[in-house]
Structure formats: C-alpha cells, structure tokens
Amino acid sequence: MKKHLVRVHQSKEKIERKDQLAWKIAEIASDSNKLNNNVLDMVINRIIDNASVAVASLNRTPVATARAMAIAHPRKNGATVFGMPNTLNFDCEWAAWANGTAVRELDFHDTFLAADYSHPGDNIPPILSVAQQMNKSGKDLLKGIITGYEVHVNLVKAICLHEFKKDHIAHLCPAQAAGVGALLELPTEIIFQAVQQAVHVSFTTRQSRKGEISSWKAFAPAHAGKLAIEAVDRAMRGEGGPSPIYEGEDSVIAYMLKGKEAVYEVPLPEIGEEKLAILETYTKEHSAEYQSQALIDLARKMKQKITNYEDIDSIQIYTSHHTHYVIGTGANDPQKMDPSASRETLDHSIMYIFAVALQDGTWHHIHSYERERAQRADTIRLWHKISTIEDPEWTRKYHEQDANKKQFGGRVEITFKNGETLIDQLGVADAHPNGSRPFQRKNYIDKFDTLTEEIITKAERNRFISLVENLADLTKEEIKQLNVQVDINNLNHNAQTKGIF
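Structure for MmgE/PrpD family protein, as requested:
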C-alpha cells in the first residue's frame, strides 16, 4: 500500500493528472492483478448476504416504491431486479436503484468503520446490474466488485465526511464508478472522468440520518449507484468531469470538507498489488446500526444476571465518539427516545436497542422494531434510564489503524436502586472476524435461509446458492441469472400510489 498526499491547490498551481487522487483511483481500477482466493470467497459471501437482506425487505414500502420505478423502465437484455422473474429485464441504472434500495432497507448488510462510515456491500448492486446488461462474465464481475470495495474502504480510512455533516455516499459513488469501470475494463482516462463526475454529484448532507430519519436512508446508496452508472456512461461518450475534483481551489475538500489548508493521506494499493480491502470489512448478525452489534451481544450476556428490570436505576454505556454522537445521547435527538419513532430512527438509537436486547436476550429484524414492542411501558421505562458517555479509550480503539485491534463496542455499567452495579464490556461483535464466532460461509447461508424462509422456494434457494458459489466460472448467460426470484403474485408493487413513471 502507498499513502497519497491530497491537498488543495490554487488554480495558478498546476497539478498534473498523475498526481490527482481521482487519477490514482482510476489507475487502480484499470489495473489487473491476480485473484486472491480469500477475496473470492468473501465476494461470494457478500453477494449471498446482500441477497438475503434484499429478499427479506421486498414488500417494505421503500423497496416496493423503488421496484415500481424500475419496472417502468423495461429493457430487453437489461438487468434483473430482486424478486422479479429473470425473464424480465430493466435498464441497468434503474435495476441498480431497485436492488440497492432492497439491500439497504433493513440496515443489515456489511460495514466498514474508520475515519468515516460505510456499507461497502452497496457497491455490488450497480456493478452487478451493469455486468448483466453488458454481457460480462463472473471473472469480470469479481474484478468490478473487488475494485469497488478497495476504493471505498480506503477513502473511508482517510477522509472523514460526517465531521462536516456530509453523508457517506460521497465515498460510495466514486467507488461504484471505479468498480463499474474495472468491470468494463475501461481505460484509465475514462474511469478518471467518471470518478470525478461521481464525486461531484454525490455530496449531500447528513440530515438524511438526523432527526426524523426517513426512507431516504435506504434510497441514498441506490441513488449513488444510479449516479455512478450514469457518470460512467457519460465518460464513455467522451464527457469530462470537474477537475481536479478533490484538489481544486473550489473543490469538495476546499468547501465541503476540511478546507483549503487540509491535508489528507489516502492509502491505495500499488499497481499490481492485490486488492484485499474487502477482507477488512464485516457483516451484521443483527439488523441494526453496526456500532450496536457488540452491545447487543453484550446485552444478551448481561441479561443472564438480571432478575428484575424495575430494580435498575440507570444504565451508562461508555463508548466511542462516533457511537455516542451518532446513535447515542450525544446526538441530542429526542426522536431516539420516542416510542413513536420510525424504524429507521430506532435502529439508530443504541438506548432503544440495548433496552430491547437486554429484556429479550435476542434481536430480530422485524419483531424488535414492531410498534407494540417499542411502546411497551416497561421497555420505555428501561430505555429512558440509558445514556451514553464518550470514552477517549473507546474512541482510540475505534480509530485504531491495525484492523486486528479495532474495536466498536463499549463498557456498560448498570446501577441498581440498592446501589449494586453490574459492569461488563465487549470490544467486537461475536460475528466480527475477531469475535467469539466469526461469520463463515455457513453463517452467511444460514442468514440467507432465515431471512428468505417462506418467501422463496427451496428450488430457487438451491439454484441461487449453487450459482453464486461458482461465481468465478460463471458465463455471461449465468451472470444474467444471478438474482433471487419470488412468486410475482406475492410482491407488493405499491400500485396504489402513482408517480411520474
């Protein structure tokens, strides 16, 4: 790996293309190297993971809305849409829109946390959709997905967006564009222009994850994917992007991030070096914000020592800056303590999540968020006794550069009314690569089976799993079948609501 210095240049300072971050990203995307078997296995795992959470969300309103919009854009020999028959194809950018929304809706797929937040699995829907429409093979698809992860993870390591209230799709969109460029084996120049366009159009604010969190949280990564596909299409037709997009005098760094005096160090692999970033990412066992994963596991453990929740006087969670200010009481969001809050808000409230996990000893992607569950009087009483505190040591662990030492959990102190305390801590989730029972292929397939139970047939389940496990050798015809189908009569197409399309 090599760290690239990225800073703002005045217009009178000429910065050569080869020295620009977007060009270095494009060079990585246009560089071919040997396929690592561990990386191959993890790509397969993540395609299975994406499909499982997408199928589980097919009839949720945002997903039905996105699918209805995609269905309005049919295309012969286009791309497939989750749930729909493989015989029906749609424009790839709209298929990416529908599939990306389905993957993101339950907040239940993979994650990478560093200087910023990310769900690198959001790279897969647009890259797969383009692969299907452009008649690409399994090896081509692998190249695209591995590149998307590589760019995404390394941008997240180096450049903090949330500090300046920018949403994290600003790193996702250029990664998706780079992944599509790698899939199509485009020249460095074309990928360079596509990446610059993708950066330019994808900067948005974090209000989408603040206050009353709406369904846009699910749409946002899919929107980025759609923008990335369109950026690549324009670049392939010879259109350029704002340049230099990162280093320019009026660039995103100068006016949307740290400012004109900013200096970032962005790591990227050397030309010819293996792209291994996907191995640093981790999926979720529980359908909630990643920073709650270890705390859910800790709550399940601490439950065993509690007999009466009414005896609890207070619960304090000592955790990282990110956890405290994003999903904790440091966010100062009254909605995070509101029993009438949306699911999207509740899955960003560690106070709610910890209370339910402590009482139930489990977490379920549907039942744990049901309105009657959130409005249980005893849960509300417990929930409102919970607060978070930023602990510098947990913040340090969160930002640890060594992936084997990174931790995203916290220490919990439960104080009872009689003055006794129960204290425990957990650094990483049980399912984390460094956890007590790291997710393996069997766990990904078990998750798929659990989330798709009674939604798809056994034959469809076996067909899809068999296909994806042979990913590296799939033909272009087989790539077009890399989709999970359900009985179309059981799909909610949100037909009662009409839009423009």
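The beta strands are 2-7, 74-79, 112-113, 117-118, 263-268, 312-319, 386-390, 410-416, 421-426.
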